[in-house]
């Protein structure tokens, strides 16, 4: 039995389907990475910054700021 040759349209359709699946995969992976970065920021970095700012305010560091001169 001989194999039927794949016509050009079928080949292009398969290549296009593969490219679409690749784009979907990249989009899902990028969404996961960005989501994990935002989660890390809001659960770790932001609270640390707020604690550091409160610590500076408690020490009175805000009084030592230079005057703005216009």
Descriptive keywords:
mainly alpha
- β-strand percent reads under 5%
Sheet with the most strands, sense and barrel status = none
Query: For the terminal residues, how far apart are their CA atoms?
Result: 89 Å
Task: Quickly count the helices.
Answer: 1
- Helix fraction? over 70%
Report on the architecture of this protein.
The protein has about 70 residues and is mostly helical. The protein has a domain at about 40-70. The protein has one helix at about 10-60. The model has no long low-confidence stretch (mean pLDDT about 85).
Topology of helices and strands:
Layout: H1 8-59
Entry summary:
It contains one helix and no strands. It is mostly helical and 70 residues long.
């Amino acid at each position: 039995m001989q194999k039927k040759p794949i016509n050009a349209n079928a080949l292009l359709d398969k290549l296009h389907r593969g490219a679409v699946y690749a784009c979907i995969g990249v989009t899902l992976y990028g969404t996961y990475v960005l989501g994990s970065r935002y989660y890390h920021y809001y659960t770790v970095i932001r609270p640390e910054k707020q604690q550091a700012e409160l610590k500076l305010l408690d020490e009175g560091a805000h009084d030592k700021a230079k005057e703005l001169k216009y």
